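Reopening this ticket.

The earlier resolution said the output was attached, but the attachment link was broken on my side. Pasting everything inline this time so it's all in one place.
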Amino acid sequence: MNRLGGNQRSGGFLLLETMIGVMLFAIGVLALAQCAARCLDMESAKAADERARMALANRMAEVEAGAVYFETGKEEKLDGMFKGITLNQTRTPLHLVEANKLELTGLYQIQLEALWEEPSGTQSKVLTFYVYQPR
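Inline output:
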């Protein structure tokens, strides 16, 4: 018997219990670190998605206001706040006819596509809208 009243073998079990406890704590800390890393990756992806949405909204406003001459099949690499985003633009004329067989001219379908690179691969957002540009 030792001084605490137990036998000598219980000291080994205490050491084993402590080692198991430390191992479980370490596994928990590693799992928490992995979750934190994934959260940071998702925040980064969300920020890139927001930048792409803002770039598309800005270009749509420019086209609707007539501030930008819209070319069909144009690809543009953006800079400044939108650096790393490539904007593809297409314009398709709409051939619509009224009830009295009169063709409506000057209506276009505009498609904007924003492309950017992320560690998981190429990401994209597409915006389609219609504009009237009289000749």
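Reporter confirms the inline version is readable. The chain has one helix and six strands. The chain has one domain: 10-132.
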